[in-house]
Structure formats: C-alpha cells, structure tokens
Amino acid sequence: MASVDKFLVISVDCLRYDALSRTNAIFNTPKFDDLTRDYALADRFFVTAPATRPSHTSLFTGLYPFEHGLYGQTYLKMFEGIPNLFQLFSDAGYQVTGRSERPDVFRFLDYEPFVTEMDSEAGNQHLGSLENLFGTLFSGEKERQFCFLHFWYTHGGYGMRGIENAPNLKKLVDSGRVAEAMRYYRAAVTHVQEFLLVELLKRVDLDEWAVFIVGDHGEGFCEESIAHGDLLHPNTLHVPLLCHVPGGTQPVFPDGPVSMIDLFPTITNLAGIDAGYRGYGLDLIEGSQGDSERWVLSELDSLYGVGFLNAGNLETDHKRVTSRVSFNNAELNLYDEGIRQWAICDGSRIYRKTEGKDDGALMEMDGSRLECEDEASMEENYRAILEGSGYKGLIAQETTSDEVGILEDRLRDLGYIE
C-alpha cells in the first residue's frame, strides 16, 4: 500500500477499556460514536506500564520499560540512543506537532522538546482552546504531518477541583460505593470524548489521516487498586485502542494480545520510515497475525516512588540530571513501600508477580483469581522476553551503585546469577 502522509495520535490519560460506549453502554457519547463508527477497536490491547511516562515512552519507541530504561514514573531519563517517533518523523521532513494538557509530565525525556502546551495562551490547559491547534493541523501548508495530543483532564481529580464537598474517591471505593466513585471518572471521560475530541475529529479528513486513539493506562476503582501506579491490575493495564487508516486498509487484530509497543512499527511502516527497529512490537497492518502463543509484558517500578509532578523535579535544570535516578550525582531517595512487579498477558489472562516475593497470581480480565497450575512456565515466558530482547546492551547504561544493586537483585531473582 502507498505510504501515509498524515498521522494523528491521541492519548487520553487514565482511559480504561470500559470507558467507551462500544464496551460500556452506560456512556452517552453519540457525537463521538458517529465520528469513530468505522474505526477498528482492539479488544485485547494492553499498556506496558500503569504510569504516564513509561507507557508513553513505549508508544514512542516500541520498547518495553526494561528496554527503554524508564522503569517507572519517577525514573528521570531514558537509555541513550533510542529512536523515537517525533525525531524520526522530523528527520523525514514531516511537520511534527506535540501538544499536551500536562506537558511537564514528559520532563527530561528525549522527546520532551517536541511536546508543548495545548494552548500557549491558557493558564490552565484544560480551559484552553483548540483553535490554534486546528490552524496548525488543517491550514494545508504541510502535506506530511505527525501530530500527538495528550488529554489530561481524565487524570486524578477528574475535574472536581474547586467543587465544595467533593468526595474522597478512595473512601467511597473502600466503603463499597464503587459505582458512585465511578460517576466522577465517567463524567471526565465523557467531557473529553464528546466535547473535545468531537471538535477535533470532525475536522479530520479520513481519506488523508491515519488516526490512533489510545489510553496510556487505565484506572483501578476496585478494592485491590483504587488508582494506578501502585499495582499491576487488569483495570490499569487493559485499555482501548481505536484506529483508522486511510485507503481502506484497516487493522485486523490478532486473536491474542495487542501491546502499546505495536504502535511504533505500525506507524513507522505506514509512513515508509526505516527505524532499524528490532523490538517485540508487531505491525498491526502487515504482521497482525503474529505469534498465536504471544505473551505481552507490563512492568511497574515504584522503588523511587510514583510522584513525579512536583516542583523539585519540574523546576530542575536539565544539566543537573546526572543519571536516570539522580540529580547532581545524588541519587533519589528510595521509597519504603516501593516494589518492582511484572505481568504477562495472553489476551485473556494476566499473570503477575512481585520481584523478590512468592506472590504469583493468575487473573482473569475482571481481576478475579484463577488457579495457576504451572507458575514455572509463566516465569519462563517472562524470562524469554528478557533474554530475547534486541536491546539488552542498553542496560549497560546503568550508572549508579543503587541501580546496579537493584539490577543484580533482579537478575538473581530470575536465576541469572547466584
């Protein structure tokens, strides 16, 4: 097929799989539904991490967190020398546009320079206008375009800031009032889909643009996991992917799982860009059948905490970041309750384990536990992903004593070293 000249990648923060009318009839989004009626929906799409920074980095590089180096939300930098979509499209002569309602979440990452505010004139980005963006995208000045948009309104507070007597959602969930807590989240999702994305998508010429709409991770809203970032859980790992490709060639998703890492080879191949990619991602147009026995990986690392959006990080000069976990050669403080977890998924089941603990758990997609008769094979599937990576050499960029120690503990737990 002919290469595609225009790409629109939309990330909606905290977008759960059941946060679409297609997957949950409770949503009333008729305009959004009309505009995306013919988009393909990946039923079994999984993110690589339940946190914004590592998940987006997987989207832009096609790599798992252990491959790109951003193990968790509070890791400061990626491994060096990894191509990303923004730079690749810029080098190929595309007009590259990146806008976010919270651009500082991408601080210190290789692609940070490409992502700016959604509306430079607005003090609060979720109150800003999309008009300037439309003028950039639809002016007709550039024939080849790559655009990334990140909507943050669905994150955390769900637009409740300033509302008198707003409830504590964790207390609602803990007291069994999950449906009541979910109402606030669903209101935020509806706002983004029906009032923001609609205004954008109705201006997109589907004969020209390839469009991908995805959640960077989900949200918990259950007793085991209220939010995201603290535990690998189906509610935070299973998200929707909607996509449209011009020219009548739509993705045919495999029976097994689809991963965030699949978007990188899919997009670069549609553009005809040779990225020298050797990762695990599948081209969802050309190679969508993939491996029928495929397992995809998700990772969580909160060893340095999960909080990143604070003044201490965001106002720090780039030159002070001297490693992936240090400022001025002083390592970040370890978090007392921090953990490192991994999970593998075959599209219908998720197996999760905390490194250093004997707590392996096999789950259905609703989070209910299944009996795992062969945990050894699950760990072997995980080990095969680590050992088969084409990017293992990048781990040599570990630079601090604590990081080396953590790595050694990880390899020891997996039986690589004694």
Describe the fold and architecture.
- The chain is built from twelve helices and 16 strands.
- It has 418 residues and is α/β, with parallel strands linked by helices.
- It folds into two domains: 6-271, Alkaline Phosphatase, subunit A, CATH 3.40.720.10; 296-413, no CATH class.
- A hairpin with a 4-residue loop joins β15 (361-364) and β16 (369-370).
Count of distinct strands: 16
CATH superfamily of the largest domain: Alkaline Phosphatase, subunit A
| Order of strands, widest sheet | 4-3-5-1-6-7-2-8
The level-1 CATH class of the largest domain? Alpha Beta
How many domains, as an integer? 2
H/E series, N to C? EHEHHHEEHEHHEHEEHEHEEEEEEEHH
CATH topology of the largest domain: Alkaline Phosphatase, subunit A
Q: Tell me the span between the first and last alpha carbons.
A: 51 Å
Kindly state the mean pLDDT as a whole number? 91
- Shape type: globular
Query: What is the gyration radius calculated from CA atoms?
Result: 21 Å
Structural class: alpha/beta
**How many helical stretches?**
12
Short description:
The chain is an alpha/beta fold and 418 residues long.
Can you lay out the helices and strands and say which pair or pack?
Blueprint: E1 6-12, H1 30-35, E2 40-46, H2 52-61, H3 65-68, H4 85-91, E3 95-100, E4 116-117, H5 131-137, E5 145-151, H6 169-174, H7 178-201, E6 209-215, H8 234-237, E7 238-244, E8 258-259, H9 263-271, E9 296-301, H10 311-314, E10 321-323, E11 326-327, E12 330-331, E13 340-345, E14 349-354, E15 361-364, E16 369-370, H11 375-388, H12 401-413
Parallel strand pairs: 1-5, 1-6, 2-8, 3-4, 3-5
Antiparallel strand pairs: 2-7, 6-7, 9-13, 10-11, 11-12, 13-14, 14-15, 15-16
